[in-house]
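fyi for ur records
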Amino acid sequence: MHDHPTRQLNFERKDEDIMLQTAQRLADNLSTRRSVRAFSSEPIPLDVVRHAIRAAAQSPSGANKQPWTFVLITDPEIKQKIRDAAEAEERTFYEERAPQRWLDDLKPFGTNATKPHLTEAPALIAVFAQNQGENKEQHYYVKESVGLATGVLIATLHLSGLATLTHTPSPMNFLHQVLNRPNHERAFLLLPVGYPKEDCEVPDIQRKSTEQFLVEHHASSTKP
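which gave:
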């Protein structure tokens, strides 16, 4: 007996061949995902974005507090306000705050303080982390929880056929002000969403090999 409410798990066990095929297909598909900075202004199906946000909201969170808010923005005036504020922060970053090593590391990506994608992309998703509930309810592992949800969001959008860019100007207090969010929320990430321009190019970078990021420990197959 449990001293808390429970219900039967809804879980479908799959054939191992199907499991392997599914995992390989998803990994291969996600390996093609790239951050896009040249967006088409062509409208996108917003219901796809809403379902992707719904998928993100199924992510695990500390004590199931679900400490996230997703703000979907398509209003051109609001996007322009966000771009103006973001570019102001970025100019300060590039000209005053960023150490030279960081600037050197950014050179292969060709980034600068100009952020046209914030107005060109047909939609922006501003992700906010809730430090506590509306009634000052305690939240736990907020960064970890919102990070997990954001990863699911990005993957779902990509697998659904949309491009994204993880944009994190620092600080991001302007998002709180422009979008009139409550005091218990803080900006976590800004995600432009749309189709890439037909002539879109991305930096020629390489991912680490599996051997560089996967470490495995298995029980010995031989007995002493």
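The first helix runs from residue 16 to 30. thats all i got for now
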